[in-house]
Specification:
about 725 residues, 28 helices, disordered N terminus, disordered C terminus
Length: about 725
């Protein structure tokens, strides 16, 4: 062997069983030594659970307690199973089966089908969508592409929760689940789908588990043969087990208890697929003699990141929250999480892109940075901002915005309307550009109100709504723009974002980020309605949203940024509120971390003398009653909305008249000069210097330079009219 062989890529295989235990912390060592009876490992984020699991198996094999071929380790993704097999080989424990539930069941099904049923195993459907479409057609139900995806997801959920077609409507009601269509209709399609599978002699992915369960229940000889093969079972990510997977595991085990499960109820974020933490939480009830080991030493994240993660869970309620783990960081201190409030979504995306560019310049590799959001439709503005900043990026778990089917179809419809608009009845009565776009996209599925629930229909609506917002912003920036101008703009954006990219910043949804980690993580769009998402109604759904944010926070090793925008578009009414989950944790609602705010026309756009400057800010309190303020408008006025105002009414009216004249000359809405709340704050405080005026929220460096002299003159009682020529 050469020296290079002993690098981190080719670590030396431990020479003895005891050497396998070297480097484990006390709790991980307990896991490795607990080789008998039921074992439950409660492992927090970043605590080295995979390391503990693989060393446990390897120690058992090397010590002669476990026979490699008798161990079955199951997890939920092929990537995780492959990683586990690789680590076991490096520890000298080759031959152990590490598979997903489905791959283990499929292997058994293929082997035992001729004996149990006879003949060849039916063909496995790679994708069930076409068969669902055929079933819907047989039921005389028309489904568009997105409804088809959602109904398919409902069928999958039904099967993993062991719900038969006739029971689907009742099961949906009991689970408080938002069905994409009438539940009775979906139950009918589900029944027809099952009939068509039988007629065509095919099985689907869920059938692999169902049929294996059926064979093991009916054929005790086959069940005994599998139990003679596998004596010891290990299950990773146990909080994500579905009722069907648990049933299969019970049949594999029989009356034995040689089982080790690992999980974290605080990372349960897939309940919509049928996953439930109940099996993890009930493990000690089912196995009273179980050994329970908690891994709480966090090797991934700095104390600052861990402190925020613990703070999030400290506010959680419900059964999963009762079993939360208090993480203890094992790393050196790092930077505080950054909390940034922006005026609007484009400003948030631009500010995030600038911060990422700064991190890359400081030596953080682009591949070690991630931007995480709640839904995939949020990616477009970040794709654009990163492209504009010259930062390479890659999308994970989603198509690029302009490559999505609904966006391509919408672009084609807009292009056709631009070409033949005069003859398109859809455009009758649609006078301005946004109205024309809304009219065209209404034919593609866009509506004024979002559809209820989640799923493909909601995803499609979000993509179309993003195009509507883009049209509104484009028309505001370029008054008089036509539909053809917008189509040209969309084409330019699509071309720019289709350019080849190298390994770069990861853009991903929070769900797609599970199991991954980066040096720097940006959690964006953290407003009420997005986090928690609007359609999270029940207490349990709200708590799952909190856990989703917790998963996002714990993806960060060192740098963590959290941001939100008060309005959707530049100049919009700042009516949004930061997510409730940060209450008591973020500046202005408690005491934690560093807050940044940019100067410029929109908060978060950092220009001029204040660019990049940070300031520490504690709670903002009402100057009248002393109450802590959380609403953006109240924080601007430095008083509660209901507290008495000492505003100079005459000054306020003079400022409004001056603003109207400025807006007319600039050809912009009045709020682009100053918002009503900013004018009220000026009229209440009556500043008499640049410093006092700049201290008022909503002024900023650029507006101070542009309008400061006029405003101070009006406050001093001088008459000022229109704008001067300075820009």
């Amino acid at each position: 062997m050469t020296a290079a062989t002993h690098s981190t890529l080719f670590p030396r295989v431990p020479e003895t069983a005891d050497a396998v235990l070297d480097g484990l912390d006390p709790e991980q060592r307990e896991v490795a030594l607990a080789l008998h009876g039921p074992v439950c490992v409660l492992a927090g984020a970043g605590t080295g659970k995979t390391r503990a699991l693989t060393h446990r198996i390897a120690y058992g094999v090397r010590a002669g307690v476990l026979v490699p071929s008798s161990v079955l380790a199951v997890t939920f993704t092929n990537r995780a199973a492959g990683e586990m097999r690789g680590r076991l080989r490096q520890l000298g424990a080759g031959g152990v089966q590490a598979r997903t539930f489905h791959s283990a069941a499929l292997r058994q099904l293929q082997y035992f089908w001729p004996k149990a049923v006879g003949g060849e195993l039916p063909r496995l459907l790679e994708r069930k969508v076409q068969l669902v479409a055929d079933a819907a057609a047989r039921c005389r139900v028309r489904l568009d592409r997105n409804e088809l995806r959602d109904v398919t997801s409902e069928i999958e959920w039904s099967k993993v929760t062991q719900t038969v077609p006739a029971d689907y409507p009742a099961a949906v009601a009991k689970a408080l689940r938002d069905a994409p269509r009438d539940p009775a209709e979906i139950g009918q399609i589900y029944a027809m789908y099952e009939q068509l599978k039988r007629d065509r002699d095919v099985i689907d992915f869920e059938d692999v588990l169902l049929l294996t369960v059926g064979i093991l229940q009916d054929r005790h000889d086959i069940a005994d043969q599998i139990r003679r093969q596998y004596h010891h079972f290990v299950v990773d990510e146990y909080q994500d087990v579905s009722p069907l997977q648990q049933r299969l595991l019970d049949l594999w085990l029989g009356d034995r208890d040689s089982l080790c499960v690992v999980g974290d109820a605080s990372q349960t974020i897939y309940s919509f697929t049928g996953a439930t933490p109940d099996h993890l939480l009930n493990f000690r009830t089912r196995h009273p003699n179980a050994t329970v080991i908690k891994l709480a030493r966090d090797y991934r994240s700095t104390p600052q990141v861990v402190h925020l993660a613990n703070g999030l869970l400290s506010q959680a309620v419900g059964r999963a929250a009762e079993h939360r783990l208090e993480l203890i960081s094992q790393r050196d201190p790092g930077p505080e999480p950054r909390y940034t409030e922006y005026g609007d979504e484009p400003a948030e995306a631009e500010g995030t892109a600038r911060r990422i560019r700064d991190l890359i310049a400081a030596g953080v590799p682009a591949g070690e940075i991630a931007v995480l959001y709640r839904i995939n439709a949020q990616s477009e503005v970040y794709e654009q901002a990163l492209a504009d900043a010259g930062v390479p990026y890659q999308l994970r778990g989603a198509e690029r915005f302009f490559e999505r089917q609904e966006v391509r179809e919408a672009g084609a419809a807009l292009r056709g309307a631009a070409r033949f608009g005069a003859n398109d009845s859809l455009l009758d009565g649609a006078e301005d550009l946004p109205a024309q776009v809304r009219a065209v996209l209404s034919g593609q599925g866009w509506t004024g109100e979002p559809p209820a629930g989640s799923g493909a229909v909601r995803d499609r609506w979000e993509s179309l709504a993003a195009l509507v917002r883009l049209a509104e912003d484009f028309a505001r920036a370029k008054p008089g723009a036509t539909l053809s101008d917008l189509v040209a703009e969309l084409d330019e954006r699509a071309a720019a974002q289709h350019a080849p990219t190298v390994q770069g910043v990861t853009l991903a949804s929070l769900h797609a980020a599970k199991g991954l980690e980066w040096d720097a993580v940006f959690l964006v769009g953290l407003t009420e309605g997005m986090m928690p998402i609007t359609y999270a109604k029940t207490d349990e759904q709200i708590e799952e949203e909190r856990r989703l944010l917790y998963v996002g926070v714990t993806r960060a090793r060192s740098h963590l940024s959290l941001s939100w925008a008060l309005s959707r578009s530049p100049g919009g009414r700042p009516s949004r509120r930061p997510t409730r989950f940060l209450k008591g944790l973020r500046p202005g609602s408690g005491s934690l971390g560093t807050v940044t705010t940019g100067g410029g026309a929109a908060a978060g756009v950092e220009r001029g003398a204040l660019a990049g400057r940070r300031r520490r800010r504690g709670p903002v309190r009402c100057r009248v009653c002393g109450t802590t303020l959380t609403e953006a408008g109240e924080m601007k006025l430095l008083r509660c909305e209901d507290c008495p105002s000492d505003m100079d009414e005459g000054l306020y009216e003079r400022l409004r008249e001056w603003r109207a004249a400025q807006a007319r000359e600039l050809g912009q809405p009045p709020y682009c000069v100053f918002t009503d709340k900013t004018l009220m704050a000026i009229a209440e405080r009556v500043p008499d210097s640049d410093g006092e005026l700049a201290a008022i929220s909503g002024v900023g460096v650029r507006k101070l330079n542009r309008f400061g002299a006029d405003v101070l003159a009006i406050c001093a009682g001088e008459a000022r009219g229109g704008s001067d020529d300075e820009v």
